[in-house]
Design a protein that fits this description.
The complex is a heterodimer of chains A (306) and B (279). By secondary structure, chain A is an alpha/beta fold. Chain A has helices at residues 50-58, 97-108, 114-127, 143-156, 173-190, 201-207, 245-265, 296-305; strands at 7-17, 23-34, 39-43, 65-70, 73-74, 82-85, 161-165, 193-198, 210-214, 222-227, 278-279. Chain A has one domain (5-81, 159-303): Rossmann fold. Chain A has a seven-stranded mixed beta sheet, with helices on both faces. In chain A, strands 2-1-4-5 form a four-stranded antiparallel beta sheet, with helices on one face. Chain B is globular. With 279 residues, chain B is mostly helical. The interface between A and B is medium-sized, with 24 and 20 residues. The complex binds adenosine-5'-triphosphate and magnesium ion.
């Protein structure tokens, strides 16, 4: 499994010095492979270390233990191959929309001339539907527009991997829906490898190919990896008519409500953090492509029985 | 609404000014000959006191003298008799020289301190001790080492402008939002480009606040410094006119110092507005 994965998170841990001496472990022994072109969402309760995992993937933080291997080499710092969409959009307020995107483009291709950089920036501003607002400052934009600029900035450098930290959580439902549609379209068209953190079960179900469930912290682990049983061609409006919709949704919510808490202290028999169980709610276990021989059905049965 | 507020404020300002001028005029109007004055004291106080009009000039007299000064500000009739414009030019030139020197030192040094927690810790005790020293306390030392009164005044301006700029630059640089730095890091922006394209614009409003405080202090200090070193400048002018017992000229100098200080402050306020960004 490790061999064919594009990103491989291997046994990473993050520990901080605790107040009374000693160390608190935010998460440990975290293993996660991500395939090329895959859209992976991570769900877990607040404080379990999702942002920390994303920062480690981005190279902004180093893990206390373990490594992350991308395309055969271990991550040693930030890279233009991995673009980050920050939760707080992190636009430079003194630059215009075009200036913000062009800043990224120029970082990626410092040797290109001004006209080329501007053209590339405009192309991505248009892609996120902001054509006409190029000269506005971030302060003149709505929350959704700012997040779009953040997306355009991340995509404009044509990264191999897109990392998103709850990019839509601060937006109203309507804007969130539109941006999810666009993110989905863009990532799918480009075959973009994407890792995204979210609190929102529906968002994960709509966007992800696989959903990673984290247990509560401290000492969080990957509890299981859920294969999204919904068809790859999905539309927001009739998602809920799919027979797997409610099994999947119930499974995720059940995990967040109870199992994220109980899992850490009493993991199911045979749980191996190196190969977290692969689950496909709503489908017969035998049909899971590339599934590990894992106690998935047990967890599933509990989820659906609840 | 806003316009009417401005209008009403201007009217009120004008009324306050008129009241003050009228009070001034009445207060200095004179009260008739003073009979029971000690002759020695009368001699000291001069003719005006003896005749009962106040030694304090009234607004009309000040206005007339001001007009004379303004209509010929740049004459030179000897070392002790130069136009007020010439004196101001000397002061402004000294302030500009000392201040620009301080900018050249404080901003790079502030960058260094702001970016490096080590330097910040190491230099903090020095800054804390140096900052509260009255700049004029440096004057004897400056005169002794530099041996030139003009340069010593510039040095004093340099020293007093340095600290607010240094501290504000360091603070502005150290408190650049982490997310902006992370953006630069994920884009693999080099150190120079990060300094000029991210940190400098982000810290610019704070730096400008420091520069504005500095120019205010520099203008306060130059008057005192020139009183000490003498020779030229608006501070020397004040002292010289006090020795000539020309209260009128002293009052005019006070007004002019205020106006120039305001202009300097407004120039920096304009620049600050240029670099401020709304969030
Ligand atoms: N510098 C630090 N020192 C000690 N503990 C820290 C430090 N930084 C983060 N933590 C802890 O690490 C844990 C994980 O933080 P992280 O931001 O990754 O959580 P998260 O899962 O992203 O939460 P949320 O969903 O609220 O964003 C938190 O419990 C936090 O208290
Ligand atoms: Mg987070």
């Amino acid at each position: 499994m490790t061999e064919k994965s594009f990103i491989s998170i291997e046994a990473i841990a993050r520990r901080y010095p605790a107040a009374g001496g000693g160390r608190t472990t935010i998460f440990e022994d975290l293993w996660l492979p991500i395939r090329r072109g895959e859209f992976v969402c991570m769900i877990g309760h607040s404080g379990c270390g999702k942002t920390t995992v994303l920062n480690i993937l981005a190279g902004l933080e180093a893990p206390s233990e373990g490594v992350v291997i991308v395309d055969g080499t271990a991550i040693e710092g930030p890279s233009l191959d991995r673009a980050v969409i920050f939760q707080s959009h992190a636009l430079l307020p003194w630059r215009s929309v075009l200036g913000n995107v062009a800043f990224a483009v120029k970082s990626r291709w410092p040797e290109k001339d001004r006209a080329w950089i501007e053209a590339q920036a405009r192309r991505f501003i248009e892609l996120v539907g902001l054509a006409g607002s190029e000269c506005k400052r971030p302060a003149e934009l709505s929350g959704g527009m700012k997040q779009r600029v953040g997306i355009a900035r991340a995509l404009s450098i044509e990264p191999k991997i897109l990392l998103m930290d709850e990019p839509f959580s601060a937006l109203d439902a309507l804007t969130r829906g539109t941006l999810q549609d666009e993110a989905r379209r863009i990532c799918q068209e480009a075959g973009q490898t994407t890792f995204m953190i979210t609190h929102d079960v529906d968002e994960a179900m709509y966007l992800a190919d696989r959903i990673v469930l984290m247990t509560n912290g401290p000492g969080a682990r990957v509890a299981e990896i859920v294969e999204n049983p919904l068809p790859r061609e999905r539309s927001r409006t009739d998602l809920h008519r799919h027979p797997s919709y409610y099994p999947l949704r119930n499974h995720l919510i059940d995990f967040l409500v109870t199992r994220s808490r109980t899992f850490r202290d009493a993991p199911p028999a045979g749980y191996d953090p190196r190969h977290p169980p692969l689950v496909r709610p709503g489908a017969t276990p035998g049909l899971v492509a590339g599934a590990q021989p894992a106690p998935a059905p047990a967890g599933l049965a509990r989820a659906q029985g609840a | 609404m806003a316009r009417s507020l401005t209008l009403r404020a201007s009217v009120l300002s004008a009324a306050i000014l008129a009241t003050l001028l009228a009070a001034w005029h009445l207060a200095t109007g004179g009260s008739g000959p003073v009979a029971d004055m000690d002759p020695e004291y009368a001699k000291l106080m001069g003719q005006t006191a003896v005749q009962g009009t106040s030694a304090m000039p009234g607004p009309l007299e000040v206005g007339a003298t001001l007009w004379r000064h303004l209509s010929d500000p740049f004459y030179i009739r000897g070392t002790n008799d130069m136009g007020i414009g010439i004196q101001l030019a000397h002061s402004v030139a000294r302030v500009a020289a000392g201040y620009l020197l301080a900018v050249l030192v404080a901003i790079p040094a502030g960058f260094l301190i702001g970016m490096s927690p080590l330097m910040s810790r190491a230099l903090d005790p020095f800054i804390q001790v140096m900052k509260p020293i009255s700049p004029l306390a440096w004057m004897p030392l400056a005169l002794y080492t530099i041996k030139d009164s003009g340069l010593s005044a510039i040095f004093v301006i340099f020293i007093c402008s340095l600290w607010p700029m240094l501290i504000n630059t360091a603070f502005g640089v150290a408190s650049v939002r982490r997310e902006w730095l992370n953006v630069a890091r994920t884009l693999e922006v080099g150190p120079l480009r990060r300094a000029f394209a991210v940190i400098l614009p982000a810290a610019a409003p704070t730096i400008l606040t420091g520069m504005r405080i500095s120019i205010g202090i520099a203008w306060l200090v130059i008057v005192a410094a020139e009183m000490l070193v003498g020779g030229t400048g608006i501070g020397y002018f004040v002292w010289n006119e006090w020795n000539n017992l020309s209260i009128t000229n002293v009052i005019i100098a006070i007004l002019v110092i205020g106006v120039v200080g305001m202009v300097l402050d407004q120039i920096l306020a304009r620049v600050a507005r240029l670099v401020t960004f709304p969030e």
